[in-house]
Amino acid sequence: MKKRISGISGNSDLDNEIHALSSASKPISGWVARDGIQECREACGGHGYLKASGLGDLRNDNDANCTYDGENHVLIQQTSNWLLKFWPQVLERQVISSPLHSVDFLTNGMQILNTKFTAKTINDLIMPENIISIYQWLVCYLLKITYNKYIKITYNKYKNNIKKGMDPFTAKNDIQVFYSRSLGIAYIQHFALSIMYEKIQGATDQPIKNVLLKLLSLYGLYSIEKQHVAVMFQGGYANGKEPVNLIQYAILHLCSEIKGDAVALVDTIAPPDFLLNSVLGASDGQVYHHLQSSFFQSAYCMTRPRWWSDIIQAKL
Fold first, then answer.
1. How many C-beta neighbours within 10 Å does residue 125 have?
2. Domain membership of residue 175 as a residue range
């Protein structure tokens, strides 16, 4: 028998929230890793394409994360389906609370929907509280339009699609393509940023705390610029060109600020050289020394290939 926690019988609410969080965490983690590895590969130019760089193997090993244990686009819809049940409570201005507090902010959902993008300077925008407030608006707005499209329109559109000869799966899939996925992504990003900010606030080393806050802000703004800007304008949260300009300038500013700490940040993870298995990432930084060594260790580096005589005879 399951233990009771905070008065929740059988922990069903906790189970459902954990399932929603994991169903969004797995896809977003796989996508972030996929994009990060690819950007590293391209940033290293031709060197990154070499087998000895290890980036190709890393990319191939991670690629399965986008489909195993649930294809990402399908899996994240389980999160959205769980979130949809809260919209009627938002409309009725009920107090919303969950065991892990990932949706507690929806209690103020109607007030959040009336907020606007107000940052005027880079320093305003990079404040974690302001970035988190943007994500709260995104979740509320995406929840609203997803509910409207899925719940109020789904039945009629589903019937119309069936009349057109679509099979049930295709008919349902056509109304889940955009908003459901974006809702799940914004929700898990908001939760991750909120937890990160809470933990960073407890740091006692001020220089480390400052760097971590910059990383938090950079991830939050980078994700907004990449995935959510269109929704901000679609929902009337932002207007004109200044919000986009400010977000882009803030990202460049944070990259410049963090650049000096990049090596130290990587060294906090510090995988051993044999595990990293890359001529580009060795701890001593001797890229070309290790690159040359990898060439010399190649099976045919100092020998002729077996088919060399066939080429000579063909020419003769």
1. 25
2. 82-267
Cα-only R_g, the chain: 25
pLDDT, tens only, 99-110 = 999 999 999 999
Task: Report the pLDDT value the prediction gives residue 7, as an integer from 0 to 100.
Answer: 35
Report CA 241 to chain centroid distance, whole Å.
Answer: 25
Element (H, E) at 184: helix 179-201
Cβ neighbours of 179 (radius 10 Å): 21
Q: What type of residue is 27?
A: P
Q: Tell me the pLDDT tens digit for each residue of 19-32.
A: 999 999 999 999 99
- List the beta bridge partners of residue 5: 8
Q: Which two tokens stand for residue 43?
A: 């940033």
Residue 68 domain-assigned (yes or no): no
Mention every residue, 6+ apart, whose C-beta is less than 8 A from residue 278. 52, 53, 54, 55
Q: Report the C-alpha gap between 117 and 127 in whole angstroms.
A: 13
List the CATH number of the domain containing 133. 1.20.140.10
Find, among 185, 181, 256, 182, the residue nearest to 217 by Cα. Answer: 256
Could you tell me the two tokens for 81? Answer: 């389906």
- Give me the residue label for tokens 């060197």: 47
Q: Distance between the two ends of the chain, CA-based, in angstroms?
A: 83
Residue 297 lies in a domain: no
pLDDT for residue 3: 37
Give the total number of structural domains in the chain: 1
Total Cβ atoms within 10 A of residue 139: 28
For residue 232, being part of any structural domain is answered with yes
Decide if 115 is inside a domain. Answer: yes
The per-residue pLDDT for 6 is 36
pLDDT of residue 69: 77
pLDDT at 163: 65
Distance CA 301, CA 316 (A): 26
- Rounded Cα distance between 316 and 311, Å, is 9
Decide if 92 contacts 177 (C-beta within 8 A): no
